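Retro notes, structure queue

What went well: the backlog is down to a handful. What didn't: a couple of records were mislabeled last round, so from now on we paste the full input next to the output in the thread. Example, using L,D-TPase catalytic domain-containing protein from Sphingopyxis soli:
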Amino acid sequence: MSLRRSAALILPLTLLAAPVFAQTGVKEDSVVLQPDKVTDDAPVVETVSEANLPSWSEANATELLSFIEKVGSEGLFLQDYNPDGLAQAILAKNQIQLDKVATDSFLLLATHLRDGRTPNAARKQWFMTDSDAQTTPLIPLLTSALTSNSVSRSLAGLDPAHPNFAVLKAALKSAKSPADANAIRVNMERWRWMPRDLGDRYVVSNVPEYLTRVVHGGTIIATHKAVVGKPATPTPQLNPMATGIIVNPTWTLPKSIIAEGIGATIARSPATARAQGYIWTGSGKNLSVVQQPGANNALGVMKMEMLNPHAIYLHDTPSKGAFASAARAFSHGCIRTERALHFSGLMAVYFAGKSPEEFGEAIASGKTTKFSFDNPFPVYVAYWTVVPNAAGNGIAKLADIYGRDAPVVTSFAKPGRAAAVLISPNPPEVVPTAPMTTTQVNKPGNGGIY
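Corresponding output:
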């Protein structure tokens, strides 16, 4: 977008800024709490003939061992990757043994670098989808590494591409205590649970930071304070595609919120309910209530459309006072967005191709208007408790408002996820769903700047 067009956006937003209403206790759609995913994905099993791997040279195996010996810098744990067995296989000069041990160590390490070490059971309310298994399959990666003698480079290339990961990795080297080191490892893990490359344009809300950022062309173009779910209705982690921005939205009340009060108001004083913008059909258990656009609407002037089974989205609120708090975990799970006119204007202009004038007219009309995005983009609702600090020279630790760090730290003392791909002489009739022993299968062991 040109500077002229960016500047033109300011005028409509200034003129049409809605008055600040000091409402309290505004409720929006409640999060639909989903059960955690506790079972890890079953490993893919390939036969030796299917994999068609070249043999390990002594030089490639030694390079793998050197990488494993320094794997602590990746936030991972040396003994997970059988360094003693690999060293013995190199010294034994037994090609069959070397191929087996080195391949197993490489595949397990590559799995943890690409997908994270943490089992699903320790990833509380984590529902992000990660396409790295499709974009970076491990057998072609291993084949290329052996063919081009680039084992270390291939493994290092699995690190998340985002600069914040590099900041954490650098900070791990100077961690002042085991607790500090584990806090950093937890967040390095969370970056690995996400797509390696977040994309060229996206919105990211970091729940413990109470901030939402808009990224366009790889550059942050806006940062907004956010109100997130309170501990009783926590905001889950997910990455739905945003398809459009709705200005002057209506609000369809969930049954739970109807039961909390507005249902009684409708029965007792329908005129009062109408004055607050509510219209309804039915009665009793069949009562359906919709709040019309207006100053009192619980969604304020905008709602970002991002369909997901958790009923989570970004929206405005008439309860502006909540943004003045340092800790802002007040919502029913959705993410309330400060300076909503500015946010929705950016969405309409940058992502829906509308002019500032078109956006301003839609706001001024008071009518519900949807601006569909030319190309849907992801919204990352993330949970990082260690982030780059404001000075840009280190890290800052944030409050773990939902207690989600501890399960990950606990998992560090237990076996991690199994390798995503297992090499077997013959594929088993049933694909395993848990780490397998060497007698069962040919395998030893088992997301500053945003």
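Agreed that this is the format going forward. Reviewer comment attached to the example: The first helix runs from residue 3 to 15.
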